[in-house]
Amino acid sequence: MSKRASLGTLIRNGILLENPIFRLALSLCPTIAVTNKLRNGFLMGLAVLFVQVMVNLTISALRKFIHPRIRLPIFMLIISGWVTVVDMLMAAYARAAYKEMGLYIELIVAFASILARAELFASKNEVVPSFMDGIGQGVGFLFALCIISFFRELLGMGSLWGHAFVSSKPLLIMVLPTGGFFAVGILMGFFNWIDMKFFGGSGASGAAGH
Amino acid sequence: MEFGKLFELVVAASLINNFVFTRFLGLCIFFGVSKKMETAIGMSITFTSVMMISAALSWLIYFLIMIPLHIEFLKIVLFIGVVAAFVQTSDTIMRKVSPGLYYKLGVYLALISTNCIILAVPLINAEHGYNLIEALAFALGSGLGFALALIIMASIREKIELADVPRPFRGLPIAFVTTGLIALAFTGFSGLITL
Q1: A190: nearest CA in chain B?
Q2: Is A169 exposed, middle or buried (0-12, 13-18, 19+ CB in 10 A)?
Q3: Of chain A residues 61-90, which have a CB less than 8 A from chain B?
Q4: B184 exposed, middle or buried (CB, 10 Å; 0-12, 13-18, 19+)?
Q5: Which ipTM score applies to this complex?
Q6: DSSP label at A13?
Q7: Residue A209 pLDDT greater than 60, yes or no
Q8: Which of A29, A103, A203 lies nearest to residue B167, judging by beta carbons?
Q9: N or C, which end of chain A is more exposed by having fewer CB within 10 Å?
Q10: How far apart are CA B185 and CA B179, in angstroms?
């Protein structure tokens, strides 16, 4: 396998085959909390993408200096450092969105998917593949958040990114908390169905973990 | 601080702003351990106690160390350190002092250390500037709310296991739809108390 192809594979894995939300069922909390508007879902996805890439870069650059016995606390420290950076950037440049979802930005620190990639990939690989892996995982997350929030805002408010398409609100329930659970459940079932129909998968979602 | 206000805090945190159904936190654990009633109860007990102690610890650190030193911006880093260190310590102590209890609840402790509710409660406490008693009441309410959600969900999922669910929806997807229905019921609590 050529180097280029393998980098492409890393990205594709993150978006489709090992999508953190639909396939692995990791880091579910923000997917429901912030996806009632497309803008919020997109910004959250961007924040996660940034943190994932920077954490992967930092950890793979420092991997020779981190003693294996204390690696988890160090990883947490690096992750929480980058989350603080994103938190402050959002507070400064995206005030309106930050007011609605500030708490969830701070909670990126407790994402299993970020720690898992750091532990499974970045701590064992060179800087460039780790960067690609971070982009793949982050874009997969962004993609999932955008899909969910696209449907929720369209169905719930009849608008997209704040621009109204229809004057009425077709299914108000979709922007309420309840709608988030329905949307994620139905999309997960849909992705499982695609997996069964076209890729011969078993149709079972990954075990829920944090 | 009169008793009524504290009671309102507990009720508001457990029913009206239930962490699982209206704030969507702790979902990973919620879906992970709600398959069986027994694990759900074990998790609820461990969770509520860890929540109260770590809320108290973080409160002390925030108001006695971070505010005097003006390092509030480090709250994410410090809170996760406090919670992780506390969970690790109690894990070690429990294993030595009470192996029986550790055998029962130890596995939940390991799961808790990366739970977002455990981190969210200190952050919310700090943001609202609750005093120590209020912070404890809020933590208690959050723990009880999470326990309630877990137990409701576990009793439903034990029934779903026997139901004939379409194949792509088996497992997590149907659990999500069920949670949506429970969340709908919990919407009824909004407006019960206005804080």
Answers
A1: B168
A2: middle
A3: 73, 76-77, 80-81, 83-84, 87-88
A4: middle
A5: 0.75
A6: I
A7: no
A8: A203
A9: N
A10: 10
Q: Which residues of A touch B175 (CB under 8 A)?
A: 185
Contact B163, B19 (CB under 8 A): no
> Position of tokens 């894995």?
A13
* Token reading at A208: 């829920």
Interface probe, candidates A35, A106, A114, chain B, greatest B C-beta count within 10 A = A106
Question: Does residue A207 surpass a pLDDT of 50?
Answer: no
pLDDT for B129: 82
Could you give phi then psi for residue A159, rounded to 5 degrees? -140, 170
Q: Give B91: exposed, middle or buried? Use CB within 10 Å, 0-12, 13-18, 19+.
A: middle
Q: Could you tell me what percent of chain B has a pLDDT over 90?
A: 0
Interhelix angle for A95-106 vs A71-93, to 10°?
Answer: 170
Q: Are the beta carbons of B164 and B190 closer than 8 angstroms?
A: no
Query: Across the interface, which of A173, A176, A209 has its CB nearest the CB of B32?
Result: A209
Reference A186, options B180, B173, B175; nearest CA is B173
pLDDT digits (tens, 9 = 90+) for B94-123: 888 878 777 777 777 777 766 778 888 888
B168/A193 touch (CB, cutoff 8 Å), yes or no: yes
CA distance linking residue B11 with residue B19, whole number of Å: 12
Query: Are B173 and A189 inside 8 Å of each other by CB?
Result: yes
Closest in A28, A76, A181 to B183, CB measured: A181
| Cβ–Cβ contact A30 with B under 8 A | yes
CA dihedral (B187, B188, B194, B195) positive or negative? negative
What is the least distance, in Å, from the CA of B169 to any CA of chain A?
Answer: 5
Write the residue in B77, B171, B183 that is nearest to A177 by C-beta.
B183
B48-68 b/e with 16+ CB inside 10 Å = b? bebbbbbbbbbbebbbeebee
Task: Note the pLDDT tens digit of each residue in A83-98.
Answer: 889 988 888 888 887 8
pTM of the full structure: 0.79
